[in-house]
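Now for a sample.
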Amino acid sequence: MGRTNNFGAPRGADPTRRQFLTRGAVAMAGLSAGAKVAYGMAGGMAETRSVIPGTAAARKLSHNAWLPDSPSDDQFRALALVAMETAKAQGADFADIRIGVQRECAGSYARMSLGYGVRARVAGTWAFEHGTVLTNEAVAAATKTAVIGARTASAVNAQLGRKVLEPFAEVPVVKGEWHVPVQIDPFSVPVDDFFRVQGTFGDPTKHLGGFVNSYGGLRWVTETRVFASTEGSLVTQSFTRGGASIDVRAWLPDMPWDSVDIRVTRDDGESAGFEVMLRTNYNDRIIAAAEEAIRWRELPRKKFDDVGRYPAVFDGAAFAGIVGHTLNFALDGDRLSGNEADASGRSFLQPFAEKPLQPPPEFSSLLTLRSNRSLPSSMAVQWDDDGVVPVPYTLVEKGTVVDFHTTRETAPLFENWYAKRNHPYKLHGSSVAPTPASLPMCSGGEVTVDAAATATTEADLYRDIKHGFLMKGAYVQPAPGLTTGLLGSGFVAEIVNGKAVARLYNLRMAFLTNSVLRTGLTALGDAKTLGTTIARTPKGMPWQEMMHPVTAPAAFCKEVDILRTDLSR
């Protein structure tokens, strides 16, 4: 499809051992004494990681004290402009850069990583280079290598008779700054306060006799990212994302190894600072989760060997996993266009996207799927990694596909499809680079499935089941084409005559995406049953993990295949 990726650090831009040692000495000069400091590479970024000592004196300091100073926004912007001037001088048709710093704090460690990624396009062919040395010379060298790589690959394509002059969506030039609103910078909070807050997560369950335990941690990631393009765009954004991760575990005295775990919070947190810990009362949610864990733990534990086809109810997180790892990914423009054919795979919706006159596939009329990148979502940005302002959009409306996740590279490929539906192709702000040094690719934002408008609990959904299952918190393993998948879970309840009668510990469910989401889905829970999972998929060559949150209500599916059981347990 005209994409050629030259991955790997730019020649002449990787730090030598001498540069690495010099950088380490400078970094150490800015760190508090006693820290255990490690240096390395992660996600194409140069990383500094500090393990904070457990002494009282060390814990009185904030995480800032354990990290070196990072370059200023002005330095990042200056380097970005060097890259773009170099790309134009080298004759690139288009180029852009993402450059910045990511910092992470969580309890007793702090981490900082620096890097950049340059993407260049010549005659419809792409190349990409990343680097970690933040000097004018290194950034210029990386940019030059990207342009030369794109030109070389374009010439090879021409010699082979490959036509790769694909359209690239035009967008307005953007300039400016945007910052996630933060009242309390988590990196300024003493480490001791992190541990004090984490300690409170266990308080609501202390009265339950030691056989119910609530626990959790705090984690934040902050980032400054500068984006620039040869079209003239130059934007600076700073993100602060994180919060609490809390679980509840229940077990019995005679079998401490046999527990039921309930997730209280979602994994990705939100776009906000430490102030979320002051405005959020987790006690009621922890107590409710503890009561639920105890109720399920009291069920007898049972092995299940009767493979077959059964009705099933999925809690919100489990259903979000099914939708997020199948239909949501099937609507990815990178898959639909074939760009990911040799990487993450294709989409079962590809023929529909390529043939505009083909009738749209109909899923259950209960299914409406939306995406947005607005606050307070952990995916919130002002500009995506193509420099596009995100807007909310609907992907599936009452069972009918009405839109795709697209980027500047993929949206024009579906122009005919959009035209047959009487509107121009759309850009929604769906370009995501996991780090500044990563290649931007298509990804959803905060993807949600509409809940039922009428009051419907999980128990309401399985009330009429004669013999079936309730699955909570499932993980999903989709097939490459997303047409099928396997579900596993830490908790499955057997339902007989509308009541939970046993916990099944060796069950795996298989599903066909079409049968579950088209004919099988017959009821959804209300907003109180919503659950969130993180949809993850490797993309690109070499692979880089893309992820975003998916939220959905509980769901009843009239038929799911019990394909196999784990006989080793």
Remarks:
- Confidence is low (pLDDT under 50) at residues 1-30.
- The longest strand covers residues 234-252.
- The two ends are 47 Å apart (CA to CA).
